[in-house]
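Researcher: Please generate the 3D structure of the following complex. Treat every line as part of one assembly.
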Amino acid sequence: KNEVEQSPQNLTAQEGEFITINCSYSVGISALHWLQQHPGGGIVSLFMLSSGKKKHGRLIATINIQEKHSSLHITASHPRDSAVYICAVRAGTGNQFYFGTGTSLTVIP
Amino acid sequence: EPEVTQTPSHQVTQMGQEVILRCVPISNHLYFYWYRQILGQKVEFLVSFYNNEISEKSEIFDDQFSVERPDGSNFTLKIRSTKLEDSAMYFCASTARPLNSPLHFGNGTRLTVT
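Model: Done. Output below.
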């Protein structure tokens, strides 16, 4: 049973393209995190959302609590954006986290 | 910028041995977590820790595992009697406030059980 589903699993884009990664979840949450995992394995937090929309540079994250869905958008994609993007939710009833399987993004110059 | 540090970066151990993975969270953070990622699989939650006690643990976190904050700065994960399937990358993370602050991850410890 997957509490968090991400799509697509793999994504290849040309440099400059607009990219969207989707995340759906089935549990009640108190927060949703978008994480970036580099090829070396390190994980960096990009966004934490509980409602609405956040923007940081070329990255935009949105969440629709009623539909239990979040999207991560990358504008003007660049090869350095190539990484695995992971959606994770903090379950609303406690301090437990559920992770998606990640979306592997490759941006080609 | 302060960061979460984990040691060692890579640990190799024989099946049946005990290992201790160490983490130093960011100093003003109050909530600490351990996660693991088996090669090629998704990140999995193991345990959360607040106020010197476990606040939540997953099904994975059975009696083989324990966590401790021995001295106010270190946060350790002990795995007793390691099994081959414990081989994974183990990540520590911390946050100041789970509802308002992002998670900060360490670089992970790659555990190899032979």
